[in-house]
Amino acid sequence: MDNRKSAVGRASRVRQSTSSMTSSRSSRQSSHRSSRFGQGSRRTHAQSDVSASHAVVIRDDDGNDVTPVSLLSAAPKPAPIQTGGDASESSGVHSPQSERSDEAMSVGMSVADESGATTPIGQGDNMDEAAEDAAEERPKELPFEEVVAPTAEEIEGRTTITLSETDTIWILDIEAERVGDEYPEVTEVKEQNEAYETRRKAQAGSDKFMPRSTQTINPLLKSKGVHAPPPTLADSGCQADVAAIADDVEKKDPIKKTSNSAGEKAGQSTNSESVLDHPNMMSTIRMVERLVTQNIYHDKHVRYRGTGDSPTEKGVSHLWTFKALDGSGAANAVAPNPQKPDVIAVGIGHRGFKNVGEGGAIHLWSVKNPEHPEQSVVMPSGVTTLAWSKRSPQLLAAGLHDGSVCVIDVSKPEVQPLRSTYTGGKHGDAVWEVDWVDRGSERGESLVSVSADGRVTQWSVKKGLEFVDLMKLKRVSGKAGADAFISRAAAGTCLNFWQDDHNVYLVGTEDGTIHKCSCSYSEQYLDTFTGHSGPVYRVRWSPFDSSVFATASADWTMRVWSSHHHEPKVSAQPATEAVLDVAWSPRCSTVMASAGADGRLSVWDLSTSLLDPIASVAVETMPTSVIFGPSPHTLLVADANGAVHVYRLDGIENVSGGTEEQKRRLEVALAGKDGDNSTE
């Protein structure tokens, strides 16, 4: 015992009751055996002392004991060692327990150690298991530690603490399918890929390889169903006699009944009217037709109204075409209704003088149904011009090729046009343009027309188309010493009233001159503008600047004028044939459109270029008229085949600002241009 204590004292300053978990377990087993076997207990304790003396001791570089000590083992209670033999022998009394111990020890052999204690050899496993069970049942005791204060040398000495990083613990490691070029294993991966590719190519046509196929097991399917309660039903009924049913049917759906001669003789009446003759059938069919066409033209309608996305590049795109099936002539005029912009009136008629006696028509189209006109009015002669009343939007004025002026009320089911006659001041030649003029609340609205007979006539609708000649056009000599005229009368081709003063208007003639006239003076012109070498087909005031107007002529030019100068500000040649029409944009003061007899539709922006159009497109048939539509950046173009094409202007931005800002932009675009930029 002294030797064991001295060995433990030299091993460490901190004394522990046990050295390791193995020694503590051996001690527990030994003490358990000592409690059951009297004499063998001394041998067991001796054996534990030997194990403790020969335990593994770990020391550091300075010789200090750093052996790990278990904190879970309990301190054993050593039994007293008896050197004088067994207790039973010294006392001379043998208990039953000691007898059983002697019998157990007498079986087999025993080995004695240096201290004289013997260890039995060959004991059964039941003894070890019983010892382990007893050790587990005994409560565990924490090891006792004796803390010794460090010495002065240990305090002054140098202590080295080394920190090291533990190995990386991978919780989830998914191998990548690709290797970057910066990794060292990229060369090995490339070699493996090349070897696989070589092996795969070698399989083709080789007898050493054979294809095999596998079939994937289909997943098990499970059907599930639900049961819904049936809907609740209720019975309902009423009683009615035959007379009540007949009266109710006649009130809701009246049907005209007619009788034939055979039925009258027989005293019976038969219903000869079919379902198509029902008075509400046409309106129902028209509504269904609109619904179907709106589904077809939905995307185009969105672009027409300016609510959809449009290309940013400047250009002209075609949306759809209004085309009547009768094909009675050319579309000479297009007029959207000022109050109902979706309603568009189109005048049809032959343009040649030999076809004066042939009839014409007026088609009322709706944007909601581009396939078929909503209403058609047959006219006695070809229609050359149209104009809607601003005060009474249901009134439509038309000028005919035979010189007549007609006013139509489209709101009435049966249209009866109010027409001028020879006794009532009918024109002696074709009426080329009509326009409504507001004379104020007292005088109302009147109609003004210009004809090839040289008369500018005002018509009063309230008095049954009573007329007054505002001006009889006469030729003027542009240069001094010119040849004398055979006839002093000048044929009028177009007119346009000034928006600021309805007493002032412009008139274009076949001589190529433009006259500025007033309703207060019927004998002389306010001013005359010369420059065109052919008939002037169209004259239009700018909607933003009352001093600027544009003209289209048969001399292949389109010109922009200022009422303060007698020379044109801009003279452009958009076509190699006559320019039949010109129009100003109602939303941008510098944008214009022109239609030429060569089949070209051109769009101009004076702020961009005064000589070249920003966009041009070829029309299927020769265009006869062009006008800006009621929707933003849309164009309505009539052609010689009786159709009206609807176009969309792309890439043209809306100019912000009021009338003054628009006027300033136009003045800047025309600044310094007095006619010397002509392209003729």
According to DSSP, the number of beta strands is: 30
Sequence stretches where pLDDT stays below 50 over 5 or more residues: 1-54, 74-125, 255-272, 674-680
Large-scale geometry = elongated
Structure classification: alpha+beta
Query: Biggest sheet, open or closed, and with what strands and sense?
Result: 4 strands, antiparallel
Helical run tally? 13
What is the end-to-end distance?
Answer: 136 Å
Mean pLDDT: 75
Assembly state? single chain
Q: What is the radius of gyration computed over CA atoms, rounded to a whole number of angstroms?
A: 59 Å
The amount of beta strand, in percent, is 25-35%
Write the layout of secondary structure elements.
Elements: H1 2-11, H2 21-36, H3 40-53, H4 87-91, H5 96-106, E1 109-112, E2 118-121, H6 125-137, H7 152-156, H8 186-203, H9 242-252, H10 261-266, H11 281-296, H12 298-304, E3 315-323, E4 330-336, E5 343-349, E6 360-366, E7 375-379, E8 383-388, E9 395-400, E10 405-409, E11 418-419, E12 431-438, E13 445-451, E14 455-460, E15 466-472, E16 492-497, E17 504-509, E18 514-518, E19 527-529, E20 536-541, E21 548-553, E22 558-562, E23 570-572, E24 579-584, E25 591-596, E26 600-605, E27 615-618, E28 623-628, E29 634-639, E30 643-650, H13 659-670
Antiparallel strand pairs: 1-2, 3-30, 4-5, 5-6, 6-7, 8-9, 9-10, 10-11, 12-13, 13-14, 14-15, 16-17, 17-18, 18-19, 20-21, 21-22, 22-23, 24-25, 25-26, 26-27, 28-29, 29-30
Helix pairs in contact: 1-3, 2-3, 2-6
